[in-house]
Prior knowledge:
The complex is a heterodimer.
Chain A: H1 2-31, H2 34-37, E1 43-45, E2 48-52, H3 59-68, E3 72-73, H4 79-89, E4 94-99, E5 107-108, E6 120-121, E7 126-130, E8 133-137, E9 144-150
Parallel strand pairs in A: 4-9, 6-8
Antiparallel strand pairs in A: 1-2, 2-9, 3-9, 4-5, 4-7, 7-8
Chain B: H1 2-71, E1 83-85, E2 88-92, H2 99-108, H3 119-128, E3 135-141, E4 148-150, E5 164-165, E6 172-176, E7 181-185, E8 191-197
Parallel strand pairs in B: 3-8, 5-7
Antiparallel strand pairs in B: 1-2, 2-8, 3-4, 3-6, 6-7
Amino acid sequence: MGRKWMAFTLIIFSTVLVVFIIIVCTTKPFKNPQTIKCSGKWIGVGYKCFYFSDDTRNWTASKTFCRSQGSELAQIDIPEDLEFLKKHTGMIMHWIGLSRNQGESWKWTNDTTFNDWFEISGNGFFAFLNADGVSSSRGFVDMKWICSKPRF
Amino acid sequence: MEAEDGYMVLMGKTHVKSQQRSKDFALYPFYYCILLVVGCIGILTFVMTVIGLNFSNKKMDFSKNININSLAGDNYMCQNDWLLNQRKCYKFLTSSRTWNESQRDCMKLQAHLPVIHTLRELEFIQKSLKPGQPSWIGLYIVPPGKQWIWINEHPFVKQKDFSIIGPTDSMSCAVTTRNQVNSEDCDSKFYGICQRDIV
């Protein structure tokens, strides 16, 4: 009698354990669906996927590249994104999606106006960033670039 | 008695023998002393040669180091973290600043933004830069004119492989990347390169 009970409880215990493991394994991806959404070289942060180039180009050619990938030159909407991009670029200059015409205000590549929530140094017409912050240029210099697209 | 005498004699002989023997024994410490001294001298010379060899080895290592240094491009003529090329030392600054700020940073290091005389100098600078590291050089345009000028006041002479891309507005300063030299706004922030002659 005792042995039967032992075997019975052991079987129940092990099936409960297996079921529990299966549940944990299958629900984990559902908890953070964002991590699957950015493919290949794209890095997911918050609600965006970012692409950091290896190559260097001028601002216009960088913009063209991002468009060809179904994205825009990096648009930065929240301080967390800016901090992440500064850390990730380090000492290397990267183009972002801000430009302006003479005497006009800065605009993102999708034509929305930049609300000046971070400082852009210099008198140039095209913006780039590195660990030291965001600066402006005339746009002819070859540097790396960042593309961004929404995660969902 | 004879026997006794003989015995006595014998005794006396043995006594003498034993006395002689003790004399022999008394000689031993002298030998020991000589042996000791010789031994000490031996050990001393051994120690001295070992020390001497060590020293000469160290001397040889030192000269080897110098040789290695001189083989590695006479780098000892520049300070620690400077690069040597054609009798000039270079330091690539690691924070982005305006042209004026970079020039000031170089002056603090008794250096200046690079004045480039030859294509080989330009190539050295460009090869030393990482992709995406545009850096100021000592070329600018003074407010009235459209003429590029070096910081040593010599005018820039355009060459086949050394031209400056971009507008020649006043308040322009030159930036170089790995493959080209661009005209930029002097208030933009790029990296600085400091250049100085070897000491």
